[in-house]
Each structure stands twice: as structure tokens, then as C-alpha cells.
Amino acid sequence: MSINQECNSLKKRFRGFYPVVIDIETAGFNSQTDALLEIGVHTLSMDQQGWLKKESCLHFHVIPFNGSSIQPEAIAFNRIDPFNPLRGAISEQEALYDIIKKVNKGMEIENCTRSIIVAHNASFDHNFIMAAIHRIGIKDHPFHPFVTFDTATLSGLALGQTVLAKSCKAAGLLFDNKQAHSALYDSQKTAELFCELVNRWKRLGGWPLI
Fold it and tell me: 149-182 in b/e burial notation, b at 16+ Cβ within 10 A?
């Protein structure tokens, strides 16, 4: 790899971290007790000029884990019927194993040492993913145990907005409120927003560092 290619790499840009955009839909706010219902994941790549872009997507409907709580107000908000057989839902274990396999492959290709979760209000998504990993008993996973990239915080700094829909619109990105609160759609828009924030910083001359 040439010096220019090394500079324009995920490894160099994020100090060895491999960013993975995640959005989840849940049956409540308590990551220890409330069910994880849906996961959307977008991996990212960087071109030879150093521009960040979406790469590939995974999306899963998830079966509530045994003994999990289903909060009626959460279901009313995200309009998910956890027990609808047409969802095609799979277990937390199946979903996370597929995600981890995908992330590990990306880390290997990009020569990164650890993955970092990118999400809007990232502590929420991170807590639920870590709780599921702990429930399943996965010891060797790629995600940083506490560091995240939060697009709500980054948008507050760069755009003066913290709500995902308003942040996207302030960044010049389309946002369809009718599709919101779907893990697939929200992860897609979060990925687009994160790419725009990183690329805008580059366009403004903030990267590479002088």
C-alpha cells in the first residue's frame, strides 16, 4: 500500500478502528430486560481519494429473547408486532453471529484492530448490542466495549441539530418520516449522515491533519 493509500484508509482515518453503523428497534429502554426486535447494520469503505461511503448492509428481524419484557408504549411507537410470523424473525444469536462474521471480515480487509459502533444516540444501541452479546455468551467479539461514534453529538457540533431527521435535512440529505423507526431505514440514514459529516470535515480542510 502506498503512502497516499495508507492515508486514505479507514485504519488511518479512525486510528485502527473499523466503523460499523448500527440501528436497533426495541420493546423498551432497558437493555437488560427489554426485547431487541430489529437490527440494521451498514459497513463503510473509503475510496482512494479518502472519501467515506456506504458499502454493504445487513438487516434482521429478531425474536424476543426468553423472559424479555415487551413495553406496550414502545410497540405503539415503532409499530412492530414482535410475534407476527410474517416478520421472518431469527434469534439474537443467529443475527449477531452473522453481524460479527461480516464485521470481522471487514476488519481483516481494512487491517483494523477493533470495530467501533456508529449510531444516533449511540449509547442506547451500544448498550443493547452489548447486553445481547453477554446474554448469548460471546466472548470474542470485535466491538469496542465502551467507545462509540455518536452522530447525534457530531450533528450537534457540525449542524446545530441532534434529531436524526432534522440532522439529515440540515446536512442536505433526504429523509422520509414515513419510513423512520425502521432499523433498516434509520441505519441507512445514519450511515449517510456519518459519511457526510466525515467528508464535510475533509472538504473544509480538517483532514488530513497538517
Answer: bbbbebbeebbebbebbebbeebeeebeeeeebb
Q: Of these residues, 59, 120, 126, 181, which one is catalytic?
A: 181
Largest Cα separation within the chain, whole Å, is 55
Known active-site residue 181: yes
Q: Which residues of 22-59 are buried (b: 16+ CB within 10 A; e: fewer)?
A: bbbbbbbeebeebbbbbbbbbbbbbeeebebebeeebb
Predicted TM-score (pTM) of the model is 0.95
Quote the CA–CA distance of 152 and 148 in Å, as a whole number: 11
Report the distance separating Cα 183 and Cα 208, nearest Å.
Answer: 32
pLDDT tens for 136-165 read 999 999 999 999 999 999 999 999 999 999
CA distances 161 to 105, 118, 187, Å, are: 34, 17, 18
Strand order in the sheet with 36-46: 52-61, 36-46, 17-26, 114-119, 143-150
What CA–CA distances, in Å, run from 51 to 2, 45, 164? 17, 8, 22
Angle value at C-alpha 56, between 75 and 189, nearest 5 degrees: 50
Helices (H) and strands (E) in the chain — how many of each?
Answer: 8, 5
Give residue for cell 488511518. Answer: 12
| Of 184, 177, 190, residue with least CA distance to 61 | 184
